[in-house]
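Moderator note: this is an archived Q&A kept for reference. The question asked for a predicted structure of one protein chain; the sequence and the answer are reproduced below.
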Amino acid sequence: FIDRGFWGENTVSGDSNKYFRLSADINLSAYDGACPETTFNSIKSFSGNFNGNGRTISNLVVPKYRFYQSGLFGTLGYNASVYNLTISNATIHPATGYSGILAGATSTVTLTNITVSGSVSGGSYVGGMLGSAQGTLSNLTSSATVNGWTNTGGLIGSLASSASLTKGVATGSVTGSSRIGGLIGQAGYGS
């Protein structure tokens, strides 16, 4: 399904200049987290180029408190790029840190043409797509239901002051206690 396979719970070693292209839709319903053999582990860290190729990853489930950052990717590292991807019907259970359907946290990244749906829950830094974000972000859409405590947003939990967001849309419900927003929970951190 991926022209260069790398699914697993460890960092994708030496990925910073590597290109990955999704060549088919992926249905992860068999990885429901009911037992260790059927648990999807977030890709802890990724810094390469991920072309979703207009494909969909569906039924992603990341179990409760599995990692500090939870999502398809735990962390998108420096200069990572992800584009042309849909993640549908995802369930991201609370992490001990950052939670989002695409990634718990990002470094300076480029994200373009990404759509997510499903549900995300956590404590701090919880977003429908990204728990916290830095970089150049465009054409991002989330219809996820989001439930967090603080820094909680329909699209992004916390957006860095150095980040650029163009055409961000969030339509799901958002609940939290402080610093919550329909699109972004907290904007301008790090300034």
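Archived answer notes: The radius of gyration is 15 Å.
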